[in-house]
Every structure is written in C-alpha cells, then in structure tokens.
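CORE FACILITY INTAKE
Project code: CF-77B
Contact: R.S. (postdoc)
Sample description: multi-component assembly, two entities in total
Requested service: structural model of the whole complex
Turnaround: standard
Below are the sequence entries exactly as provided by the requester. Do not edit them.
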Amino acid sequence: MTNNPTLIEMRHIVKVYPPSVLALDDVTVDFRRGEIHSIVGENGAGKSTLMKVLYGLTQANSGEIIYKGEPVHFREPGEAIAAGIGMVHQEIVLIPEYTVWENIVLGVEPVNWLGKIDRQRARQLVKQKIDEFQFNLDPDARVESISVAARQKVEILTLLYRNVEVLILDEPTAVLTPQEIPQLFAELNRLRDGGHTILFISHRLEEVLELSDRITVMRKGKKVDTVPASATTRQELARMMVGRDVIFTTRRKPQPPGEAVLRVENLSLREDHGRVRLNNLNFEVRAGEIVGVAGVEGNGQFELVNTLMGIQKPTSGRIFIRNVDITHFDILQRRQYISFVPQDRGKMGASLVAPLWEDAIMTHHRLNPRFSQWNGLLLNTRFAQQFTRDLIENFSVVAPSPRAPFRTLSGGNQQKVIVGRELLLQSDFVLLDQPTRGLDVGSMEYIHDQILRIRAEGRAVLMISADLEEIFLLSDRILVLYRGQLVGNLPVEQTNPQEVGSLMLEGQVQSS
Amino acid sequence: MRQKILNALIGIVVALLLGAVLLLLQGYDPLATYEALFRYSLFGYYPFATTLRNAVPLVLPGLSAAIAFASGVVNLGQPGQLVMGALFATVGGLYLDLPPALMIPVLALLSMLGGLLWAGVAALLRRFFDMSEFIVTLMLNMIADFFTAWAITEPFKDPAAFSPMTPQINPNGWLPKWGEFNTMILFMFAAVILAWFVFNRWKAGYEWRITGQNALFARLGGCNINRNFMAVMLMTGALAGLAGGLVVMGGPHRFIRGLGANYAWDGVMIAIVANNGLIATFLYGLFFSAIQTGALGMELITSVPNEISQVLQAVLVLVIVASREYLNTFVEQRAARRRAREART
C-alpha cells in the first residue's frame, strides 16, 4: 500500500484567513493511490483547511496541487467532484424527508426521454451501489428515520454514486458511538481495497493508528512529518502533534475541601412535550474543590448550565449558593454569586465586533460601583479602560490595545479575556463550560493554571468538559451525567477513565 | 475611521460620476448641473440655511433608526411615529396658549410623547404577546397615516379650508427664525448630541450596543434585555415624533395632508447608508438634504429635471453600501496577502 504511485501532490500550500491568521504555512504533502491517509493535529492545526483547499472549498494564497500528474485548481467543490475528489463534512447535509435513494441521486437524477426522473432506474442504480460496496442500507428508508451512522453512509454513497476516487472524511467518528466505529472502518478498508483513496481527518490517535496506512501530522499550520502507521506509536504522534512530551499527570496539590458552596437539590427539568432533560439531580460543590462533569454531549450538560444560569427554569428542585436560594433569581442577581465561562465564545461569551474593553467589563459594569458615574447613569469609561488594561496584564492577554476589536484576538487570547473577566468577579462559585475547547496547548495550560489557582483560593469550581483527560487532570470529584441523570459521583482517586467512560456510555459500570 | 471617510468619498465620487454619465446621455452639461446643484444647497447663506432646515426631518428619523438597529430593535415605525408626533404638537398648538418660551418646549415635548406612545404600542405588543416589532411597527404606520388623515378631515379640520388641514397653531408655538436660520435646527443639533451621549456614554447605551451585537451574551452578562428593548423603542419613537413636531412648528404651522412626505423612509435609508453610526447619520443626512435642496434650485436655472436628485441618491446608497463591504474585504485580503508573502520567505 505504501509503495503505490502518488495520486495527489500538494506543494508549498500557503493559506491565510483574512486578516492575518496563517492557517497553512508552506505545506507540502503527497497522497498515494489506494491508501488510507490520516491527517492528525490539534484543533486549529490546519488539517481541515488543507482538505478544503484540495476540495476547492477555499482557495490557497499560493502553492500548487498536482492530481494524476496534472496541475489542477478547483474553484469550487463541484469541479473537484467532477475530477473524482469528494468530501464528507462533519455536519451531515441531507434532506430528512427524502428517502435514501432520493438523497443520493439528488442533482444527478437519471431521466427518461420525457425529461422526467426515472424513479425506477434511479432506485435500481442506488441499490446496485449499495450492494457493490456492501453498505447495509435500505434505499427506501426515509433519512429522518435512520441513525447518524447510516446517514453518514448515505453521504459517502452520494459521493461514490458520482464516481469519486478520492474520499475525504472530516472527523467522521466524532458523531458515532463507539459501537458504530468498527463498521465504518470495515467499510473504509473495503473501499481502499477496491482502489479508492481515503483521506481521513481526526485527532483520535488510537483510531488513526488502527485504520491508516500513512499518517501526516500537522501542528500550527505546518506539516510536521508523514510517517507509515506501522512505524510509529501513540506517544510519538502525540509528541509531534503537541511539539513536546505530553505529561498526563496532574499538578493538583492535595487540599481538604471546605464547606458546601453550591448545593443542588432534586433538580429536574422536563420539556413541554414530556422529555426529561434533567432527572432529580442532587450534588454539592465545596469550597476549594473542583468538580468535573463528564458525559457524552447531549446528556443534560447544556440544560444543567441553563438552569444554573437562569436561562431555563427548572421544573422542580432548588439551587443554593452559600445557603442562599437562587432558584428564582434573575440572571443579574445570580451573577453576584456565579462566575460563568460559557462554552461558545462568539455566541455566549463576548461580542466579537465590540472593542475588547466592552467585552471585558460585562457584568462588572453592573456589580462594581466604580464603573458608575452620575448615580449609575453614566459608564465610567476611564475606569473601564484601566480595568481592561489591568486584565490584559494580569491574564497575559496578547492584544494591541483595549480598543482593538475583540475578533482580531486569537482564540486563546479571547478565552483568556473571558476567563479573566469572570474570575475577577470574585464570586465564590465558578461555573466553567468547556473552558479550553478549541484552544492551543499553551493557552490551555494557562487556563488550567488559573483554575487550579482559584481552587487554592478556596472557591468552588464546577467544570463541564467533553475532554476526559482534562477532567482527570483537574477534578477532585467527578460527576457523570447520563440521559439527564447523575449516574456517578466519584472522588478522582477512587476511579479511573475506564469506569467513567463506561458510565458515560452505558449509565452503569459494565460487569466483566 | 479613515476607512469610513474613504468609503464615503468613494461613494460620493462614484455616484457623481455615474450621474454625470446619465446627464451626458440625456444631453445635459454635467459640470454646469453640479455647479448649480451645490450652489443652491451649500454655497450661500440662504441655500445653506435651507439645506440645514431640510435636514431636520431626515436626520431625526435617521437617528431613530440608527439607534434602534444598532441596539437590535427593528423599529421601522418612524413614518407613523413622525405623523403622530406632528398631530400631538398640532393639537397642543391649537388648544394651548402659553408664552413662547414655554409653548415651544411644551409642543416639542408633546410631539415626542406622540412618537413615544405610538412606538410604545408596538413595544407592549412585543412584550406581552411576543409580536414581532418589525411587522407591528410597519402596520402601525398605516394606521397612523389613516388616523391622522381622519383627524385633520374631521375633528381638527380648518373650517375655512377646502382640503384636509388643521387651522394654524397658536403663533406662540411657531419656531422663530434667526435671519434665514430656522431655530428648528437647534433642536436637531441638541438631539444629535444628546442621542450620541446616551448611546455612547450611558451605561444603558453600552448595554443597548452589546445587545444589538450579541443579545445572548448581554443577557448572560446580566443586562435587562426587556427593559432595554422598551427604552430603545420609546426613545427612538420620541426622536421620530420630534421630527414631526418640528416640521409643523417650523414650517406650515399646521397639519396638512401629506406632511410626513417621504422623510422618515429617507431617514431609515440614511441610517442604513451610515451603517447605524450616529455621527455618520447626521453627516449623511446633511448631504442628502443638500442634494434634495440643491435640485430645486438647479431646476430653475438649468433644464435638468429635479428627479436627477433621486437618481443621485439611489446611486449613492448603492455605491456606499456596496463599497463598504468590498472595502472591508479588500483591506483584509491585502493584510492576508502580506502575511502569506511573509510566510513564504
């Protein structure tokens, strides 16, 4: 496999996202006919961008692409598909009300001599393709009624129906359950054996090692290396991805927790049409304690945050902070007790178009009297600027000035501003929702240090994270949410990732 | 800032060039036409005073729209709020009799109250029935239009007049003139300064701006979204209403059918051209007023019909709005290319 002839060569690709984000920095890579070639890297390493350049979704600033010995330049995905290169995106884009075969032929329907769609033949052609690739799909099922894994197959078949030779898959396993992954891999292997070339984007190293023939590692827009999968290890890949040895040990110092700060009693949230989102939650977060909330996304984390913050009203149950019942407080009242770092910076954490200082003073402007002039009517802009400059300095934010538009800051610096703003509120309880999602390693470590610092100060931290490693790195105690229920409340010393993992997936510990 | 000025200059120059092409095609002399256009709007005591005065009913609804849009409130009810303000001021002027120093401010406040109440109807419907203010304010424009038409044909009609209009208001409520300068422009200046101050220096203004940019963030930050929505609705209603009152008190001194003309819609358009900037709305308002004012004079001495002013306005809007986005992309693309060059070396 690794000695097959080269099919695609990408040479010296440079891509800058305006105004100045260097997404691809002189990347040269080759893909061979009939191989599964994985591209790994952290968030923001440039792996998706590289594939989008190849697929014609975005244009490189310089560099060239050689495909089958000819220089090519796809201005849009249609041209790439016509040439035999197709991409399956993370978000699946199908018409739910249509059947499988209707979705697959959409846009290239076979027509009869009257120009009408030949439904019989279309269905037959799709059936043939399904059999040819042994995809185990019902062509007449409506897409809304089939699983996510099956929809993904429909997406892949849509490309195969258009006779692509090169399939690009952008983190296809992110949406699958662990049980569904082997089947996908079997199908991909079959396609490879049939002569297709598969480019596979991922950041899950075990998967990549299992599936690939060769692996290209990217870091910060640069290609680090391309290696045969058989000649590398997980540790080596991780080192190449991150740029140094990754230490999976905690810097958390033992510290006896104090009294309870947050207390949640019998908290339930039921939706209008009866679906239970939170089912009778009871837990505490004590002073000087970090409690991690683990769970597969969509098992109640979102609703837990919403009820704690007052965006959604719980159906029943109560929330106390320092013995104050905040269940019926409005958001501003809650903010006197809660620091909150939301998971989505651009949607919940800041206004991207506002100048930095306007994002930095949010909430403080109501709670801190020094921001007021004229009896609270006027905003003390001079103090706001001073406050922002202090925040920039104390939280090591790289920003040209407090007046710089927030969107011109890098993701890591944006997050530092938000974390800084919230920690400066000095509240006893800190709610962190995916505080390091999508950050580079440096910023992530910085934010971890800040979280440990406020723990040492004796504040209570509740941290929701999809990253189990992060949870084990920081937490004193781990809560596991499964279908809106608390299925685990475990001191970190008494558990392990395997136990938590199986609680996340099954709601119980597998007896083996 | 520099980019905004560049954007305006490009827009104006391109619009004038396109206008010149049209004039040439029609067989007119563009230079002479433009010379007349600006002579009768900017260069000269009387033309300049007239331009300023005509700017009032453009700038105030423009400010109203700009503040609303920038705060994420879709108040498109400026036409209705303007005529309601005019009606309130007129009725006050018909029945009140106060010395001018009191009468004028009272009528101005009454007109603001008219606009405010009319906007308040939409705000309450949104607050309690969750009806989109976008639709409701538009619908209320129709209602205000017919309501004022009824008011000046039935209860408040001037018995001596043959067409629908009210009698003249008490002369104590007429806005005095300073030479050729009508004092209504002082109200406009004051409104611009006050609106800017509230929007940019008040805590509430800060919350309005952030809400307009990202309402969820503002809400999670502890801003009272409902109260802010209400405040913006009422304030922008009052601004549009004031425009109506000033038109009555500075001009015909009565409510005549068609008084609102197209002022409010032009104001909304100006706010869009100004990208909801308050100072920019003021400046573009003056410029649009200059074109409208100059066109009348131009028609007198050249044979060019004054409709050319509408052509110029339309081209201005298109060019300025289109070139704004293009200019942004262009500046960013240039930075990107520079960065890419650095990366290669």
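Facility notes:
- The interface with chain A takes residues 201-206, 209-210, 213-214, 216-224, 329, 331-333, 335-337, 339-340, 343-344 of chain B (CB under 8 Å).
- The longest helix of chain B spans residues 308-344.
Invoice: internal transfer
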